[in-house]
Amino acid sequence: MEQSIRNELPGTVKGIVSDKVLSEVVIETSAGEVAAVITTRSLERMGLKVGDPVLALIKATNVSLRRQG
């Protein structure tokens, strides 16, 4: 797969919550947990399941932050 995104986090799928349209995939990385929202169709095409190794590709314009505490 060719891509131009430089921010990559390897991790493992920790949890998946899906409905008919969207799925949230929680990924455990060395930096902590990251949640990605993808289409359920994409989830099915990739065949993702809990425990699978993945590579989270992060585009800076699509990152949201929230304060903890």
Question: What does this entry look like structurally?
Answer:
With 69 residues, this protein is mainly beta. It contains 1 helix and 4 strands. The chain has a 4-stranded antiparallel beta sheet with strand order 3-2-1-4. The protein is globular and about 30 Å long.
- Number of E-type strands: 4
| Rounded Rg | 12 Å
Let me know the largest β-sheet.
4 strands, antiparallel
Broad CATH class: Mainly Beta
Secondary structure: helix percent: 10-25%
Count of individual helical segments: 1
Q: What is the spatial order of strands in the main beta sheet?
A: 3-2-1-4
CATH-defined architecture: Beta Barrel
The end-to-end distance, rounded to whole angstroms, is: 38 Å
**Number of folding domains?**
1
